[in-house]
Amino acid sequence: MLSALLIVFREVIEAGLIVGIVLAATQGVPRRGIAVSVGVGAGVLGACVVAAFAGELAALFQGNGQELFNASILLLAVLMLTWHNVWMASHGREMARALKAAGHEVVTGKRTLGALGVVVGVAVLREGSEVVLFLYGIAAQGGTSNAALLAGGALGLGAGAVVSALMYFGLLTIPAGRLFQVTSGLITLLAAGMAAQAVLFLQNGGYIEVMTGTVWDTSWLLREDSIPGRLLHTLVGYVEAPNGAQILAYLGTIVAILALMRLVGKPSPRPRPQPAE
Amino acid sequence: MKRTLILSALLLIAVPALADEPITLTLQNHKFTPAEIHVKANKPSMITMINKDATAEEFDSTALKVEKVVAGNSKGNIRIRALKPGRYPFMGEYHAGTAQGVVVAE
User: Fold this and answer.
1) For chains A and B, what is the number of CB pairs under 8 angstroms?
2) Do residue B71 and residue A58 have CB atoms under 8 angstroms apart?
3) Cβ contact A133–B69 (<8 Å)
4) Closest listed residue to residue A185, CA positions, set A81, A38, A115
5) What residues does each domain of chain B span?
6) Strands B45-51, B23-28: parallel, antiparallel or unpaired by DSSP?
7) Potential cystine with B103: which of A158, A255, B62, B88 (Cβ 3.0-4.6 Å)?
């Protein structure tokens, strides 16, 4: 039961953290609950479909269907995260200022709710399909110990939800004025980690065959498949032995997002002094 | 004639890009055979995993940087990049208790 709990927990951590970050990033945005719920629901549904057709999916593109699919949905998530950050950089600040002054809830980021819903969907889909396959495998074997294994799986799912809640409420302890900066930083790192992960899938599919050599190895310090390693992998894209292409994708994504944010954030009408607290 | 020449020239170029014959790895009763796979160091290789179990298994190895789901009663190709000499453990994530193996690069 413990092993089932751990396996499911390991898989749901990623989706849990991402849901937590998205919820914090959309704090105060009306109808964000719907966007996140639809994302989770579509992700679960998609996970079941992907799990049911795992064999068919893998057989596509000369046996590279799985790698291409994973790389594509990861890159889709990277694009959505980038768009959110860039949009927030261009509109977020002045809207927040104006609306706060008017005594309203902060409704920034409404435009990118859909994008973040997609990100949640992708995260749930990716991790969920593995959970579905694992739990289905247990159920299909039948027998008495399986009830315990399934219970372990359910507890693992619950633990993932707790991670999500901890991330969310943890982020909410940050003062509202800083929250935007923190979530946009987290989203940039999430996107960078996902881009590096997408590169790995493309390498495993044989589409990228340059810079595949390991550049450094920190597995002696922190193993990527440990729970802390897994957490850091999701949050900041920690990889114990990255290769050149992964590092390039990681840094390239960060530079691209920051450059775009700066570019659109620049044409402010007039430099205004920060209002005193 | 000319076309044949060009074709054979292309084949000559294409052949070195292909890895050697894929290594067959069989999963049955949630156990890998062979549990130890030997590959040449500093040279990419390919493993064809045949899953003879009814349920899916994920070939998972952080050391090899591979995660690949192989559906029940099906097979999948796993690319192994050029490895430095050493031992690279892998497992079937859904049955990690029994499905264990190692790639040895030498």
Assistant:
1) 70
2) yes
3) yes
4) A81
5) 20-105
6) parallel
7) B88
ipTM: 0.80
Contact (CB<8Å) B82/A203: no
- The answer to whether the Cβ–Cβ distance between B69 and A223 falls below 8 Å is no
Where do the domains of chain A lie?
2-265
- Just give the CATH number of B20-105: 2.60.40.420
Residues of B in contact with A125 (CB under 8 A): none
Residue A127 near chain B (CB below 8 Å): no
Burial of B11 (0-12, 13-18, 19+ CB in 10 A): exposed
Confidence of residue A277 (pLDDT cuts 50, 70, 90): very low
Map residue B35 onto helix, strand or coil.
coil
**Which of A3, A133, A240 lies at the smallest CB-CB distance from B97?**
A3
CB contacts, 8 Å: B65 with chain A? 200, 203-204, 241, 243
Nearest CB among B56, B63, B95 relative to A54 is that of B56
Residue A249 has pLDDT above 60, yes or no: yes
Sheet holding B86-92, edge to edge: B36-39, B100-105, B86-92, B57-61, B66-70
Residue of B55, B68, B97 lying closest to A66 (CB–CB) = B68
pLDDT on residue A105: 46
Mean of all residue pLDDT scores within chain A: 86
**What's the pTM value of the predicted model, to 2 decimals?**
0.84
